[in-house]
Amino acid sequence: MLASPVRYSPAVEEVKPDEGETIAQLNATFDTILETVATDSGHAVRAVHAKAHGILEGTLTVDADLPPELAQGLFATPGEHKVYLRLSTNAGDILPDAVSLPRGLALKVLDAEGERLPDAEGTTQNFIMVNGKVFQAPNAEKFLGSLKLLAGTTDRAEGLKVAASTVLRGVNKALTAVGIESTTIAALGGAPNVDPLGETYYSVTPFRYGDYIAKFSLAPVAPALTERTGTEIDASGRPDAIRATLQSALRCIEGVWEFRVQLCRDLARQPVEDPTVAWDEEEAPFQRVATLRVQPQDSWDAARVQAVDEKMRFSVWTGLAAHRPLGNINRARNAPYKHSAQFRERFNGCPIHEPGGR
After folding, report:
1. Cβ atoms within 10 A of the Cβ of 158, count?
2. Has residue 29 been placed in a domain?
3. What's the pTM?
4. Number of structural domains found in the chain
5. Domain interval for residue 193
6. Helices H, strands E: what count in the chain?
7. In a domain, 139, yes or no
8. How far apart are CA 76 and CA 179, in angstroms?
9. Please, which residues have CB within 8 angstroms of residue 301's CB and are 6 or more apart in sequence?
10. Does 27 fall in a domain?
């Protein structure tokens, strides 16, 4: 028997008194990354997950007849929503794909009706996920230390990064073989260079889920996707190998994923404030609430890339009050995400357009 899900209240969060100072330092460190890349390339990109590998259009269908604990927020009403997906890797500079990094998937769900989060323009609900279950740091202050180190390497020694990535992948495989996972080694270039289409993605951090608290996941279910799970891409001498791989595959196949929700059932064992703790799936299983479908298409269509990759931003703070981001890391994401988008607007002279917004 599963425990009943924990009900949301503002008391589940523990706001630290120095969070404002940490956020200010995050903005300053992201500025170093943003300005370095923009100056070197003449074009501003995102401070994290700068390199996109595919921009897709699809449909999210919310399940009918969900039990009350799952029929919450966006998922309270059955039906279809148009969506945009952005597949990426997590560096803040544009690196050759031989530097293998964790994969990211950003999902923008259109026409999400309901009360909005403060300052959330438009009418969309955004979800941002990576192909790992935990975050690399327990809080924003610890993450800031790692970010400062990475900022110092932005747009530098590309050849060394490729060589180091090869070594780190070997180290990571050896550790994985004995049951050890290192998010730090993965973030430095030691992640397996896997095909993004076969990966399961996780929100890592928790969110309000209407009356409850949850983490989110997007898992491939179409055989054309699951047969790619764990498949590694050879990016030797191919700086955009991942983009080419997706473009070739998605012209021919339909992508189908399940959108799943993991309800918090014990705040001590499934904490809100520490995203380095994986929530045990036997105690808090993922449950399907919707299905995402992507029909065959050009995953690097120039017009869609311009409209979505250049002219939109993805933020966990763009969405419904019913899915408010929770925890220190999520609170620290709000201002830097806006900061990064505003920098891109100014430098590129290209306003950010949020669907359903002004």
Report:
1. 16
2. no
3. 0.90
4. 1
5. 10-17+49-334
6. 8, 9
7. yes
8. 39
9. 55
10. no
